[in-house]
Amino acid sequence: MSRFRLLFPVFFLLCVAFHTPVHAQTEAPAAANKRLFDRTVDELNFRTMETVYDKSFTRNKFPVSLRTHQARRQFDGFGTNASLKKLFQNYNDASERFKSRFGKGRTDLAEFEKQLRSILLDKNFEFFIHNLPRDERVALIRAEERIIKQATAQFNASEDPAPEDVAADGAAVPPADAGAEPPVTAPIEDPAPRPEAQVTETTTTTTPALRAADAPAAHDWLDYLTLLLAATATLLLAHIVLNVLPDLRARLDGLAEELEEQRPDLDRPARRSTSALPEDRYEDEQ
What we know:
Blueprint: H1 2-56, H2 69-73, H3 82-96, H4 109-119, H5 123-129, H6 134-153, H7 163-169, H8 221-261, H9 282-285
Helix pairs in contact: 1-3, 1-6, 4-6
Keywords: Signal
Signal peptide: 1-24
Region (Disordered): 153-211, 259-286
């Protein structure tokens, strides 16, 4: 009996030890994917803020330790630029809400990648980086696309439904961002990143339109028609200058010569032959 009492706690601990990994294994993929999504959102937000901050302050660098929302919230390295500080705080709060886009409704790989890429099209993201030069905006977006690609490679798709099941149940699954809060409006302060020597506070009441930073310009039929008409006009002008005008000038010169030959003899000045001898004037002298 005493041996049984001694073995019972050991048996209980073994049961708990074997049961816990099995239970954790059944819930690990969803929880791990959610943590991966949140971690990727923090990394995207950090890269975005780091790029804008380093462009605004040529002598300071955004600390590499600011990888979380709370750490960035406590950061106060903006000097006297209150407008830029307010912009960073507003975007830090808005970007934290990106985490709510995944974890409700569909949680498969396609939804995971879709919600991460939607961050790069969010109007708050567009407004936050719109004062960067175009080449730097393109470089930032491409770098963040690589981060998203790396995160999708780490995604655990063992619990994802089959493609035919997703197609059949797609209408019944609520969108992942159905309960998400609407995006915040742009701050009143001008977020333009400037050197420290040129910092001034301005106000603005509008936000730029949603657009992709590296999207190529679209041309419609009117643009091509305008280009065709311009090319036609150029060729026509060259034909007139090189062909028509010289031919017209040659014709005018020929017509002038014909008119000169057809003039009456009276109008022509008398021409004296150089070979004729002078007339005799002896009779007049006598």
